[in-house]
Task: inverse folding
């Protein structure tokens, strides 16, 4: 029914440790307050633009990734599976 930190809860409130969480939940846990806040703010703007349209947020993320990995003047492409 819901998740919080590393736990999942069923409809009767029984708690389970999520040993099969996905990429985001492994690092941040379920229902991380800051991530929820940022996601809600983005949802109120636009949920999905695809990869074919210019997007300042995606461009900023690409610059951040290139800076983190130390590739000066590099290029980055975000792609959806199956395209």
Result:
């Amino acid at each position: 029914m819901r998740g919080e930190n590393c736990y999942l809860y069923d409809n009767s409130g029984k708690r389970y440790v999520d040993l099969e969480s996905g990429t985001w939940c492994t690092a941040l846990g379920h229902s991380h307050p800051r991530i929820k806040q940022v996601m809600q703010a983005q949802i109120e703007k636009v949920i999905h633009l695809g990869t074919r349209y210019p997007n300042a947020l995606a461009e900023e993320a690409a610059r951040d990734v290139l800076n983190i990995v130390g590739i000066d003047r590099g290029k980055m492409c975000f792609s959806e599976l199956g395209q």
User: Anything to note?
Assistant: The chain has a mean pLDDT of 84. Residues 56-69 form the longest helix (14 residues).
